[in-house]
From TrEMBL:
GO terms for molecular function: RNA binding. InterPro entries: PTCD2. One of its GO terms (biological process) is mitochondrion organization. This is Pentatricopeptide repeat-containing protein 2.
Amino acid sequence: MLASRFTSVAKYSSLSVIYNLNNLTKFASLAANSQKIRCLYSKATLGLDGFVQTRQVILNQMSNISEKFKHKMTEYSNEETNMIFTEDLKNMIHLSSNDEDIQLVIKMIKKFNQQNKQLRFGSYVFGPVVMRMFHHFNKPELAFECFKAPELNGFFDQLMSYQILLDLLFENGKYKEILEAFDIIKGRQIDGLKYPRNVVVLVLAACYKMNTKESLDYALKLWNELKDVGHYPMRRATTFCAGLAFNQGEPGIALEILTSARNQNYTTVRNLKVAAMAEVGRVENALPVLKSILGEDVAAPNKHTFNKDVIERVRSAVAKLDNPEVTLEFNRIEEQLQKEGHIIDSNLDEQLCSEIQKPPVMNNRQPQRFQSNRPQFQNKRFPMKGGYRVRERPGLDELV
């Protein structure tokens, strides 16, 4: 039955300087909207904090000429004989403070992208920076329109641009648009990747949030595609897919999906596994998993935990089983879990959708005996990604 199912669905918190008093109301509204956004990926992972810092520097540097500059950029955008240069566009993106400015940026990037590419020698990548601007001002519709615009073909073809766009759509509940964008992304295969890992996470997160039979069918079809090409999904992608199956009344499918997770003891994997076991009536199999974290000597916040709603599901399954021995064992385990602080009030859904943080930068200056025998590349120059120099890929902690 299970195999059949798988086969069948084959700024800062406030800005210190506002240069145009006439736009104060609009700007305050945009800033307020941007602060309401809680990313699935953290701001640091998406480069939004770096964008805000660069923006503040340019605002300070051009405080006396910003309005004249914007006026000149409007003229250049409307005149065919004038070109839009890299520095023009870079400054305008970071000076934007209202809807009118954002529309000017869109006009500029369309002209910039259509200019003779042989005349462009710079290596600055604009796609992620423009997407960060849209994210900063919470403009999901504009971001999606620009992503699909024929005049901007190739402009946003970077993995980070995809990730920022889909995160923005996700935080605004535009889940169908995420699936539409994913169909486009698969066709582009940037860097030879048809299924970028962070993009897959966001697509399965959208399916999870939609929580319908159709979204489960879509997720399982995607899961089979990933399996067929040997793609190993990130842990968060695994738990979103399994969580969706569980919510749609398919705990057996959830358990099968969870076997793909490398770290079977990770909190969301463990909680989902216990909940699914209880749902399929295998309480005896769930109890050893509950018991496995007892007696550990780990302090918060690294202490292994179970969600309160998961424990309640197990308790309900135990009551249905009506077995005195199992009931006694569960009560003993629950009491000890509570005593040792292994049960938390947050529910499983909150943990599944918690913010994905950027991993810390590892210190390369380790004693020689702790270094591997692999070739070292510390002295190599790292490429510019969307205008900001980075040393590590975002979301690497999600690979476990």
